[in-house]
Amino acid sequence: MSSSSPVTINGHATPAFDIFSSLRYDPELPKLASQHPEHFPEPLNSPYYLLAHHRDRLINAARYFEWKKAFEEGPAWMKGDLNSLQEFLDSRIPDRHRPWRLKLVVHRSGHAWCEIAEAGPIDPLNFMVPGSGARSDPSPWRVFVDSKATFPSGFTAHKTTARDDYTDARLRSGITTPTQTDEVLIINNNGEVMEGSITTPYFRRRGGSSWVTPPLKCGGNAGTTRRYALAQGFCTEQVITVSDLVDGEECWLSNGVRGFIRAVVVLK
């Protein structure tokens, strides 16, 4: 796919889009990583959650969409320089003593910018895979199943601003604000779970003690916390169909801003 070619999603023309990754700045992260170095990837001294994974996600998306200018004329971190990415983000943090939600955006021209919003406090242990230490979990989120299938494409495999399918799925499930502690599972045409609208889901399969997450072949996004959870051995990949889900079953959700979230499936 050429960056100058028309862009289509589900057979429909789509306006120009950007690629992005959402991550968290938290001053507690370096201390947590130093106390549990076996549970965190490098760099351990970074206040940015899974920083290298976010860089890699943006690079992989730019490669997929063949955004040549993003590499040739973009920032040094689009060529892999992690130090330059941290410096770029550091220059945009208004108060280093508080947590922040960052949306790191890259245009096909190579222009990059960062949108910042306040982030509420989270137990630092929630940034580690479940079972890594005692944690103070709030009430579980509710997880619904979308009533309409979504067609897998490069726009579901990579994080882009062309997110109408995700917005529509959330609205169909009654999720109208970002502060709701609710999530909806995105389903492909085969009735397989692809991912959540803003999270990666994990389910415990019947007859087993381990957790599983949908494989990328189902059409979902290669999320940063998903990569982290797989590397830590918290989960393996397994196709999950809607018929596999059980009303009231416990599950986990994760993303690069909130870490790992306890949840429960709601089918009725």
TrEMBL record:
GO terms for molecular function: catalytic activity. It holds the Pfam family Aminotran_4. This is Aminotransferase, class IV.
